[in-house]
Structure formats: structure tokens, C-alpha cells
Amino acid sequence: EAWRRAGHPGSGRVMLAFSMCCMPTAEAAIAAYRTPIDSYMKALVAAASSWAEGTVSKDYVGYDKMIAALKQESFDSQRRKGTCWAGSPSEIRQMIADYAAAVPFEIASLQVNQHMMPLEAAERSLALFAAEVMPHFAAAAPQAAA
């Protein structure tokens, strides 16, 4: 709606960010990704908390509420909301389809190497995602771009 109100043609394109860990089983993905996501959320809260302490700006209204909300986030809450795609290839395909049905988007920006996750694990995850998840959605890509 904002895109059209600003006078742009068409509908614009929507990009959303997701955390992603694709492993052969859900158990392996959860084991590989729970600690990095939980550590990332704690580090984000620690870094961002100083923004809300004693600083007031009309451009950054509500930071205290944002920090309070971030303090409640974890691997489990992110996975429940569908913003952390951690599972087997078939589970991640379903997570993507479910999220896209609820919140249509065209582009997923994937965070695949969260907070101290070993590079080798992130590379394995990304390779499996590319081989077993991306091809499932390839047919829909030209339609989304149109």
C-alpha cells in the first residue's frame, strides 16, 4: 500500500529476513542451531539495550518496547513464529509454504551463519538447502517476480 501511495507502479517486491539451518533431520538442525540463535538474541539485546538507556530521539521511538520484546525471543519462539527455518529439507519446504501463505513475500534473505555457528555446519546447511529446498520453489520464482 505504501508503495502505491508513493506513486510507484505495480505492487513492489517484499523481502523478509529469516534464520535458516537445513540438516538431514529436524533433530540435527535443532541441535546445530539452538545455541547460536539463543546466543545471537542475547547478544542483540545486550548491544541494543544501551540505545534505550537515557537516549531520547523522535527518530527512534519505542526502543524500550523493542528491547523488551527481543528479551522474550529465543530459538523456540522464532521457530514457532516461522522466522527461523530450522529442520529437515521437507520441514523447511513446509515452513516456507506456510509462512508465504500467511505473509506473502517474494525474496527471502537468509541468515545462515548465526552467532558463532561453525562455518562447516553453515556450509552443509546451505548446500542441503540449495539441493533439496530451493528447487521445490524454482517454478514459482518467475511468477513472483512478475
Could you describe the 3D structure shown?
Helix 2 runs antiparallel to helix 3 (63-71). The longest helix is centred in the N-terminal third of the chain and has 27 residues, at 26-52. With 146 residues, the protein is mainly alpha-helical. It has eight helices and three strands.
Short description:
By secondary structure, this protein is mainly alpha-helical.
> N-to-C SSE series?
HEHHHEHEHHH
**Which blocks of ≥5 consecutive residues have pLDDT under 50?**
142-146
| Largest sheet strand order | 2-1-3
| End-to-end C-alpha gap | 18 Å
What is the gyration radius calculated from CA atoms? 17 Å
Structural class: mainly alpha
Largest pleated sheet: 3 strands, parallel
Portion in strands: 5-15%
- Please, what is the average pLDDT? 88
Overall form: flat
Q: What is the tally of helical segments?
A: 8
Helix fraction, binned, reads: 55-70%
**What is the tally of beta strands?**
3
Please outline the helices and strands.
Elements: H1 2-5, E1 15-22, H2 26-52, H3 63-71, H4 75-81, E2 84-87, H5 89-102, E3 107-111, H6 119-132, H7 134-138, H8 141-145
Parallel strand pairs: 1-2, 1-3
Key attributes of the depicted protein:
single chain, 146 residues, mainly alpha, three-stranded parallel beta sheet, 8 helices, 3 strands, disordered C terminus
